[in-house]
Amino acid sequence: MSTATPRLLDPGFDLTLRPMRYPRFYEMYRDAIRNTWTVEEVDFSLDVNDLKHKLGPAERHLVERLVAFFATGDSIVANNLVLNLYQHINAPEARMYLSRQLYEEALHVQFYLTLLDTYLPDPVARAKAFAAVENIPSIRAKAEFCFKWIDSIQDLHRIETREQRRQFLLNLICFAACIEGLFFFAAFAYVYYLRSRGLLHGLASGTNWVFRDESGHMAFAFEVIRTARAEEPDLFDDALSAQVVRMLEEAVECEMQFAQDVLSGGVAGLSTKDMRQYLQYCADLRLVQLGLPRHFGASNPFAFMDLQDVQEVTNFFERRVSAYQVGVEGEVAFDAAF
């Protein structure tokens, strides 16, 4: 038996927490625990009035498409976590974080379930939203993009070779950079646009918590990637980098199908041109987080993203401090995400 120090993606199921090989993952787990929140803390009472009296047909279409995507998005992420990530990231402290992430994905599903029940009281409309993957083409395209990368390593039961580690990393990069880091961040932009107009305060408040969770999920995934790269530097060659760029290009085009659908009614202050620029801006941020050069060279076109979310978090803290089960510590690094 080899006495060499095992690598993070070596096959097996290490159970030893001491000595801890990757303390950063354990700290991420502890940070996530400090960020505990519950759906019951989110007040949707004002949103119902906004939906009835303040939103026009174009804005209502945007919201309906948005909540339809939310209805299945986090479930897809959770499935990949269970089916692909947990069995291959071989460090118990990392699996502690993944266990916490799985809880957070379930919490997001509960949040969006409550959101749909509140926003869509009609049972037929609600059923259509939950079946969005089947009956809304722009959402089906995003789901198919996700499923393609889930399926890419479904038959990978043990990571034995360099090529298998690259396969696994591409799946992880897809879910961190493209799905959580692009699809969800585009959705957050729509939410914060509505909030900048004083609309759907409950949706924005809950989204702030989801945002914090998703930022943590991305940070964890990028730390796994950074660690694997440090342990085996030649994993990231020009071919892998080119694959990542192509993946992000495809994700941007996929999300643009959704943007064209969401904005088809004409929403003042939002355009598909600006959304493409924002998506390219986010994609460049993900490339930088992966230690790769920017590809699109895009800037953030949405001024409302600069301060609106920070102000809302501040107000949310002041309004609901007594309701928290666990105190939140540290600062929200919005600049790193947007």
From TrEMBL:
<protein>
    <recommendedName>
        <fullName>Ribonucleoside-diphosphate reductase subunit beta</fullName>
        <ecNumber>1.17.4.1</ecNumber>
    </recommendedName>
</protein>
<feature type="binding site">
    <location>
        <position position="214"/>
    </location>
    <ligand>
        <name>Fe cation 2</name>
    </ligand>
</feature>
<keyword id="KW-0479">Metal-binding</keyword>
<feature type="binding site">
    <location>
        <position position="108"/>
    </location>
    <ligand>
        <name>Fe cation 1</name>
    </ligand>
</feature>
<keyword id="KW-0408">Iron</keyword>
<feature type="binding site">
    <location>
        <position position="105"/>
    </location>
    <ligand>
        <name>Fe cation 2</name>
    </ligand>
</feature>
<dbReference type="Pfam" id="PF00268">
    <property type="entry name" value="Ribonuc_red_sm"/>
</dbReference>
<dbReference type="InterPro" id="IPR009078">
    <property type="entry name" value="Ferritin-like_SF"/>
</dbReference>
<dbReference type="InterPro" id="IPR000358">
    <property type="entry name" value="RNR_small_fam"/>
</dbReference>
<keyword id="KW-0215">Deoxyribonucleotide synthesis</keyword>
<dbReference type="GO" id="GO:0004748">
    <property type="term" value="F:ribonucleoside-diphosphate reductase activity, thioredoxin disulfide as acceptor"/>
</dbReference>
<dbReference type="InterPro" id="IPR012348">
    <property type="entry name" value="RNR-like"/>
</dbReference>
<feature type="binding site">
    <location>
        <position position="180"/>
    </location>
    <ligand>
        <name>Fe cation 2</name>
    </ligand>
</feature>
<dbReference type="InterPro" id="IPR033909">
    <property type="entry name" value="RNR_small"/>
</dbReference>
<feature type="transmembrane region" description="Helical">
    <location>
        <begin position="168"/>
        <end position="193"/>
    </location>
</feature>
<comment type="function">
    <text>Provides the precursors necessary for DNA synthesis. Catalyzes the biosynthesis of deoxyribonucleotides from the corresponding ribonucleotides.</text>
</comment>
<keyword id="KW-1133">Transmembrane helix</keyword>
<keyword id="KW-0560">Oxidoreductase</keyword>
<dbReference type="GO" id="GO:0009263">
    <property type="term" value="P:deoxyribonucleotide biosynthetic process"/>
</dbReference>
<dbReference type="GO" id="GO:0046872">
    <property type="term" value="F:metal ion binding"/>
</dbReference>
<feature type="active site">
    <location>
        <position position="112"/>
    </location>
</feature>
<feature type="binding site">
    <location>
        <position position="74"/>
    </location>
    <ligand>
        <name>Fe cation 1</name>
    </ligand>
</feature>
<keyword id="KW-0812">Transmembrane</keyword>
<feature type="binding site">
    <location>
        <position position="105"/>
    </location>
    <ligand>
        <name>Fe cation 1</name>
    </ligand>
</feature>
<feature type="binding site">
    <location>
        <position position="217"/>
    </location>
    <ligand>
        <name>Fe cation 2</name>
    </ligand>
</feature>
<keyword id="KW-0472">Membrane</keyword>
<comment type="similarity">
    <text>Belongs to the ribonucleoside diphosphate reductase small chain family.</text>
</comment>
